[in-house]
Amino acid sequence: MSFTVSTRGLTVRYGRTTALEGVNLELAAGAIHGLLGRNGSGKTTLLSTIAAFRRPAAGTVLVDGEDPWENERVMRGMCLIRESGDVQVDLRMRDHLGYLADVRPNFDGDLAGRLMDTFELDPKRRPSKLSRGKKSAFGAVVGLASRAELTIFDEVHLGMDAPSRFAFYDALLADYIEHPRTVVLSSHLIDEIQLMLERVVILDRGRLLLADDAETLRARGVSVTGPAEAVDRFTEDRTVLRRQQLGGTSQVTVDGGLSAADRATATQLGLEVGPIDLQSLFVHLTEKEVVR
Amino acid sequence: MSATTASPALRWSTVTLTARWLLRQHLRIALWAVAIVLLAVTVAVGLVDRYGSVDISIVQFARQGFVWFPFSMAIMMSAGFLNVHVASGLTRRSLGWASIAVGLGMAGFYTVVMTAALQLERAVYGSRGWAQQITDNAPVFADTSQVGWILVDVGLLFASAQLSGLLVGISYYRLGGWWGTLVLPLTVGPVLVVTPLLTTPLLDPLSSLARVPIAVALLGLTAAAYLVLLRRSPVRPVAT
Q1: A291 in a structural domain
Q2: Model-level pTM greater than 0.90?
Q3: Interface of B with A (CB under 8 A)
Q4: Residue A121: which domain range?
Q5: Contact flag A2-B17 (C-beta cutoff 8 Å)
Q6: How many angstroms separate the CA atoms of A203 and B61, rounded?
Q7: Where in chain B are the domains?
Q8: What is the pLDDT of residues A216-259, one digit of tens each?
């Protein structure tokens, strides 16, 4: 089974610093959720609180309908992989995988072995001796092979090179299709992960900015490309999220959809209209000032 | 989208699973510790016999090794294993009970080893005509024929070392360096007072036997403090 997540008025403080404030969030079961936010927006705090790594100062967290804190059933169904993972660094990786095979109810040793090969990890080595990227790769192995009902990757790709990151995305998708479960991916590499995401949650300065279907978000704006002068004229009264110019050609990302008449006008002006990418929307939504 | 990952029935409770794992780690180190102590005692006795006269127990000094070495192991277990344990989907409660059970089990192991070593030494000394004097300041046992009191004395001491080590570890983990250090008199205290409790004039006229429950209660308090700190402890960020 997959777990749902629900938070109500979730507030987490570190001393006098408020990391999360009044977050109301629903994560549906059996979907891949993207958790996006700038540095210090509260992503890791939110994920740590969901995974019972820490308690909220106020509000509630429910995972599969129950408070996860010290909840044996719920905790066994959650797996939070933070950066380089919480593994026994002075133990050989094969021994740590053996430990997980003992304690993780759905642990797949064969998958772990295949992933170790994919990431070129020597099972006889200790995590403490690995490079940052290899440590992250081992965290990815642990997270995928644990097959927890709620699997959370918090910036697990840090230090991984591009081939390893794409190997991780491929492995995640392949295993998710075979064994659907609730997956939460926190990442700054939005361009890389956006096609995997079914739902997107954006945090900003400790508050929930939005939570919606990835498709709905992508339909929220359009990109307009063409001669700079024509683009400027077309976007005169619209909210521009992002502007790029190369020579006489401009590409702008515009907030809000276009009517059929707008599209016809754009075509008359010789402009190309395309879908928006999540990264542009994210940058716009979390910026202090809108580019005009 | 349908969900398909099903949890198979587990053969072991999480406390048992954790205890098995911790015990494996402890035993691996303990066997080394025992081997080193036995080697050191044998060499020391040989040297003393060669260059002087053997008139005191050498094994009695292993007591400190069996206190502070497991104490440091217990610190590492509570401070270093919490992240791994919770990240593996297990509760702090299961770690608490498992580490206490393993700590007490290891204390029992070291107690048996120490008592057996003293008895072996007694037999060897007896056959050679050497005196096996105990030089402790206020021993609850005067000579090594009092096996029952040896078991009580070192058993309480080794158990306090284990529990105190767990408490020191979780104090540093939970409270940080400053507070962890400031509360050391409280957290290390049980190791320092548990056996003097059996002989201190402060508790006169209570007999040594009547003092044993007080010492056990002190160990109970230590374990309770450890569990309270552990069960409310957030998992600290990963050091990368």
Answers
A1: no
A2: no
A3: 1-8, 10, 14, 17-18, 20-21, 81, 83-84, 86-94, 231-232, 234-235, 237-238, 240
A4: 5-216
A5: no
A6: 60
A7: 14-231
A8: 887 777 888 999 999 988 888 888 877 888 888 998 888 877 88
